[in-house]
C-alpha cells in the first residue's frame, strides 16, 4: 500500500480532531454513568471495537468523528485537497467497515448506537448560546 504523508495543515487538523474526539467520548462516558449504565471502553473483541459496550446487556455505542467516518452530508466530512483519491478510498473503506461492524453486532443481538461528533457539538453550541443569551431558543 502506498504511504501518504499528510501535509502540515492536514496533520494539524487531524491532531485537533483526535483531541476533540477524546473530549466527546469523555462526555458520553459521563452520560452513560449518569444513566446508570455499566460499560467497558474500546471493546476490541467485538466487531469494530465499540467505544462503549456492555456484553451481558448487549449494547454498543460508537462515537464517530465526522471526518474519519465521513458522516454523510455533514459539513465536517471534508476531503483534504491533496491526495484526494487516497482520502476518498480511505473514507469509503472506513464507512464499509463501520456498516459491517453494526451488521455483525446486530446479528449477535446487540442494540447499536452511533453518536456523531457534530451531534455532540450541536448540543454544546446550543447550551453555550442559552448560557450567553439567557434565552432557551436563541
Ligand atoms: Zn457529522
CATH superfamily assignment? VSR Endonuclease
Q: Give the termini distance in whole angstroms.
A: 50 Å
Count of alpha and pi helical runs:
3
CATH topology: Endonuclease, Chain A
Give the beta-strand count: 4
Q: How many whole angstroms does the radius of gyration measure?
A: 17 Å
Reading off the top of the CATH hierarchy, the class is best stated as: Alpha Beta
What's the helix-strand series?
HEEEHEH
Query: Which small compounds were modeled alongside the protein?
Result: zinc ion
Q: What's the shape? A: flat
Secondary structure category:
alpha+beta
How do the strands line up in the largest sheet? 1-2-3-4
**Model regions low in confidence, pLDDT < 50 over at least 5 residues:** none
Mean pLDDT: 90
Considering DSSP H and I runs of 4 or more, what fraction of the residues is helical? Answer: 40-55%
Largest sheet: 4 strands, mixed
β-sheet strand percentage: 5-15%
Q: Write down the domain tally.
A: 1
CATH architecture: 3-Layer(aba) Sandwich
Amino acid at each position: 500500500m502506498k504511504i501518504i504523508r499528510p501535509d502540515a495543515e492536514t496533520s494539524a487538523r487531524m491532531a485537533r480532531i483526535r483531541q476533540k474526539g477524546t473530549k466527546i467520548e469523555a462526555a458520553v462516558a459521563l452520560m452513560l454513568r449518569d444513566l446508570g449504565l455499566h460499560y467497558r471502553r474500546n471493546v476490541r473483541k467485538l466487531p469494530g471495537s465499540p467505544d462503549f459496550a456492555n456484553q451481558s446487556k448487549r449494547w454498543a455505542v460508537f462515537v464517530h468523528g465526522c471526518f474519519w467516518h465521513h458522516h454523510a452530508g455533514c459539513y465536517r466530512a471534508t476531503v483534504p485537497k491533496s491526495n484526494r483519491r487516497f482520502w476518498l478510498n480511505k473514507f469509503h473503506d472506513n464507512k464499509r467497515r463501520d456498516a459491517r461492524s453494526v451488521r455483525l453486532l446486530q446479528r449477535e443481538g446487540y442494540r447499536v448506537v452511533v453518536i456523531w461528533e457534530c451531534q455532540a457539538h450541536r448540543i454544546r453550541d446550543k447550551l453555550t448560546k442559552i448560557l450567553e443569551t439567557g434565552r432557551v431558543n436563541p
